[in-house]
Specification:
This protein is α/β, with parallel strands linked by helices and 253 residues long. The chain has 2 domains: 153 residues, Adenylosuccinate Synthetase, subunit A, domain 1 (Adenylosuccinate Synthetase, Chain A, domain 1), CATH 3.40.440; 87 residues, Orthogonal Bundle (Adenylosuccinate Synthetase, subunit A, domain 2). Helix content is 36%, strand content 15%. The protein contains 9 helices and 10 strands. The strands form 3 sheets. It has a 6-stranded parallel β-sheet. A hairpin with a 2-residue loop joins strand 3 and strand 4. Helix 2 crosses helix 7, helix 4 packs across helix 5 and helix 4 runs parallel beside helix 6. The longest helix is centred in the middle third of the chain and has 18 residues. The radius of gyration is 18 Å and the shape is globular. The two termini are 19 Å apart.
């Protein structure tokens, strides 16, 4: 089998059936990678007589011997990831053995979800129809260089970094006059962070390029081309690059 990187993309606004196509193709590739997006994109799969929805985990997770990668361009909610892993483990699949996660992927905090709701409420009739999963605010923090990344959870001062970012979010929520409990879901989130530490955390760009020296990989897109932050139906788009350029930046190839 030759070394190459193939990509499955949606050409509309999502819901084109990419997950099912990836599931069919995954058997031909020893690795499947997600390169952008977050848990706002669900891929529905039918496996062994049962239906599953994966939101962050690549669709190749159900294939025996498959390596699955969450790339640097993804934004990751640890709570959602833990829930997904619990679902796939019902099939006897150990996600921690098959899933590799980029240290450079940004983390979705509970306060990112609150900010998502606050921005939509403030927009009134002009709201963009967010899924309220915290995706947009997380990418905002990434671009403004305030975000927390997966690799940060290994730092001795991670809790201090978290508190600093949370305080920033609380100020923004106050400015938006949005009533909420900023501590909501924090204990569960911190517990999920401990769960996340049990995965193989990688330097994605080195891992992927080393892999591609002699083995192929399938890159799995989320959403669709018309939701691309640059080339979609702006401003009614997602917050990441859903077209082929996102593969290069999201995986480091």
């Amino acid at each position: 089998m030759s070394s190459k990187l193939d990509v499955v993309l949606g050409l509309q606004w999502g819901d084109e059936g990419k997950g099912k196509i990836v599931d069919v193709l995954a058997g031909r590739y020893p690795a499947v990678a997600r390169f952008q997006g977050g848990p706002n994109a669900g891929h529905s799969l039918h496996f062994d007589g049962k239906n599953f929805v994966v939101r962050s985990i690549p669709s190749g997770i159900f294939r025996e011997g498959s390596t699955n990668i969450i790339g640097s361009g993804v934004v990751l909610d640890p709570i959602t990831l833990r829930e997904e892993c619990a679902n796939v483990e019902k099939m006897g699949i150990n996600a921690k053995e098959k899933l590799f996660i980029s240290k450079k992927a940004n983390l979705i905090l509970p306060t990112h979800r609150l900010l998502d709701a606050a921005y939509e409420a403030a927009a009134g009739k002009g709201k963009i129809g967010s899924t309220l999963k915290g995706i947009g605010p997380t990418y905002t923090d990434k671009i403004s260089r305030h975000g927390l990344r997966v690799g940060d959870i290994l730092a001795p001062d991670f809790k201090e970094r978290f508190e600093k970012l949370k305080a920033r979010h609380i100020q923004l929520l106050s400015d938006l006059h949005f009533e909420c409990d900023p501590a909501k879901d924090e204990a569960e989130w911190m517990s999920a962070i401990e769960f996340l530490k049990g995965f193989k955390l990688i330097d994605c760009e080195y891992f992927v390029n080393k892999w591609l020296e002699d083995k192929p990989m399938l890159a799995e897109g989320a959403q669709g081309s018309m939701l691309d932050i640059d080339y979609g139906s702006y401003p009614f788009v997602t917050s990441s690059s859903t077209t082929v350029g996102g593969v290069c930046t999201g995986l480091g190839v």
